[in-house]
Structures are given as C-alpha cells and as structure tokens.
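User: I'm putting together a small comparison set for a docking exercise, and I want a reference complex before I start. The sequence is below, and the ligand is guanine. Could you produce the 3D structure with the ligand included, as structure tokens?
Assistant: Of course. I'll restate your input first, then give the structure tokens for the complex.
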Amino acid sequence: MAKILDGLKISKDIKHEIKAEVEKILDNKKRAPHLVAILVGNNGASQAYVNSKVKDCEDVGFRSSLLKFPATVSEAELLEKIEELNQSKSVDGFIVQLPLPKQIDQEKIIMAIDPRKDVDGFHPENFGKMALEMDTFLPATPFGILTLLERYGIETKGKHCVIIGRSRIVGKPMSILMGRKDFPGNSTVTLTHSYTPHIEKFTQSADIVITALGDPGFLKSEMIKKDAIIVDVGITRVDDDSVKGYHLAGDVDFESCAEKASWITPVPGGVGPMTRAMLLKNTLLAYKTSVY
Ligand code: GUN
C-alpha cells in the first residue's frame, strides 16, 4: 500500500516557517510583504482559488489585496492596472488569476507584468531563467511538487518521470524542472499530451508519474508500474448529489493506484495546498529582493 505524500501537512510546515520570517520582519519595524491578486469574471473555481490565496496571506501575516473586475473588462483597463501595480512601491508581487475571458489576450497580460513582481513565474523572462537554471520565481504548482518530493526525501536522480499534460502552468514547466541538474531533478523526462498514442506505454515504465489533465480517474493501476510514485495535479469539480453540490476529483484512480504505488498524493490535500504555499514563498522572495 502506497504511503501518502501529505501536501496539506507539508504546506502547513512551510506556512509556519514563512510566518516566523514575517514576525522577524515586523520585529525589525519593516512593513509586511504584500501580494495582490487580480480576479476577472465569476468563474467559481477561480474565485475559490483566489479567496484561498488571500486567506493564506492572512495566515502568515502578509498584507493582501484582491482586485475584482467584471468579465467584460477591456484588455486596456487590465493593462493599466498592471502598470500601476508594476510601479507601486507597496506591492511586492501580484498574480492575474487564469483563465481570462476570451476578449483578453492572456500572453499580452502576462508579458505586461514586471518580471520582478511575477510571483506566479509565468513571464517569459522568468520561464527562460527557470529553463536555464538561473535563480527566479518557479511556477507555484511545479515548485510545490518539487518541494513535496524534496521534503519526503524522494530520489529523482536517474529516474524516468512521465508527465501527462503540457500546459504552460504545470506540464511544460514541470518537464523542464524534473530534468534540471539541481535536486530534485536529474530525471529522464517524457512529456505526454493529447496527441500521444497509447500513453500507458510510457506510464507503465515510469518511476514517477505526474498527471495534470483534468480528467477524473484517468490513471488506472494497469497503467502504472509497481512501486511507482504518483503525483496527481488534477482537481476537477464533479457534480455530487450526495453532498448537494460537487466534490473534487483527481486524475488518478486513487483506490487502485494506491495499492500498487510506493507514494501517492491525495486529492484534495496533495498538490493543491503545496501550490498555495509556494505562492507565499515566491512573494516573500519578491519582498526580500525589493525591500532588503
Ligand atoms: N489558474 C490555475 N492555476 C493558476 C495559478 O497558479 N496562477 C494563476 N494566476 N492562475 C491559475
């Protein structure tokens, strides 16, 4: 039976570490780190994510601001706000919650963010630095997965890591990070996606499988090898009458895979809380580089 990679527990440890740093900052009569989140429209999942990020800031003693815009907001209006945040001396980092409505060019918005305040690590300058193993903000979800593996002492060197999904937020950066020379990297990486025929041919030989698909229960036990390490990034809302609403489902068929794997992340309580903790880490880093 697989052991649990407990993202909720590790994220709490990290939040305690960050809180202790903030207390020292405040003792030194410096201002608290400040994260701003921009939320556009009324996507339920995005609203929930952003509210959690604001709550996380409160938990560790950061200042936070939530800027809400209607789904009809123009690109120009958003760009104007971004420029204001870029210039603001009281803002250390900010994020624009994705996805954005269709009339807005997502890449144009991301390009407008000052890379020094891009705590999501989405700007091409930061993405390039990440790929070249230079110090920068790492995208929160891949950073969270690496930290989770690191804190559990999981060896990645020389392992075959198969990633399912090539999104700009998870799959693509994850594929780069797992192959980097620093720990926990040094894996041989296979990046699979919607045009990969017979994904199971790859996953069956993988030491580590990272799924970021949004397809509940996609990864079945027949698709993995014995003692594999399974990291589930999927988090899909599935209608559920028994709870008069929905429950969250991962990409991994947890019951069957947990019997075969050596380590596995649960959903919820695995990668999700780690992503949130890494946003705090990046914000603290942005603060330290600007205020110190
Ligand atoms: N949408 C889904 N995940 C993320 C994230 O990590 N950051 C932002 N800005 N939007 C997201």
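DSSP finds ten helices and eleven strands in the chain. The chain has two domains: 29-114, 140-272.
User: Thanks, that's exactly what I needed.
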